[in-house]
Amino acid sequence: MAKYRLISFKTCPWVQRAAIVLREKNVEFDFVYIESGHRPDWFSDISPHGKVPVLRIGDNIALFESNAIAEYLDETILPRLHPEDAIDRAINRAWTDYIPTFTTLFGAVVDAKTEEALASAREPLAKAFARIEDALKKQRSGPYFNGEFFALVDAGYAPFLQRYLVLEELAGDGLSREFPAVREWAEARSG
């Protein structure tokens, strides 16, 4: 089996997504940490965007972008983390494609410097939570997006939802409590 190395900054939710998939598939891998402010020359050669994660497979292959990494791992290593049903798989992929929108809204809340900015940022995040809540209610009965089946969509949202719960607790906010399915999903732990 090829040697896997996951290149990361010390804290990065996108890398965490790839690590979750690797762990769910029981793949041995090493972390290679680089400094976010000082990227080595070799890193520029393997990451066109200059971002992490990058998954090195052996010495010759470098995959970049967390979604591409997750999809590759799911296509090549069992167990499959996408639903077998084509419609369910497409729904999962669509909600995975929503992650950047969600993280932008989440980031606006995190970056708010004033109470007014926080209130302004909180409203669009609440709308995103409501959309996700509706999708969760249509899609499953918990604890994961597809019910009992942990999937790539779960790995994609987990790093951001877990961070949100921590920040919410520190701030004394209770937005996630208004969305019980989202909260249950955020608190779910993979096997």
Task: Give me some keywords for this one.
191 residues, alpha+beta, Glutaredoxin, Glutathione S-transferase Yfyf (Class Pi), Chain A, domain 2, 2 domains, 4-stranded mixed sheet, globular
Largest sheet: 4 strands, mixed
- Number of discrete helical segments: 8
The oligomeric state is single chain
So what's the CATH class of the largest domain? Mainly Alpha
The assigned structural class equals: alpha+beta
Q: How many beta-strand elements?
A: 4
CATH-level-2 architecture of the largest domain: Up-down Bundle
Mean of pLDDT: 93
Order of helices and strands: EHEHEEHHHHHH
Q: What is the alpha-carbon Rg in Å? A: 17 Å
Question: What is the overall silhouette?
Answer: globular
How is the CATH topology of the largest domain named?
A: Glutathione S-transferase Yfyf (Class Pi), Chain A, domain 2
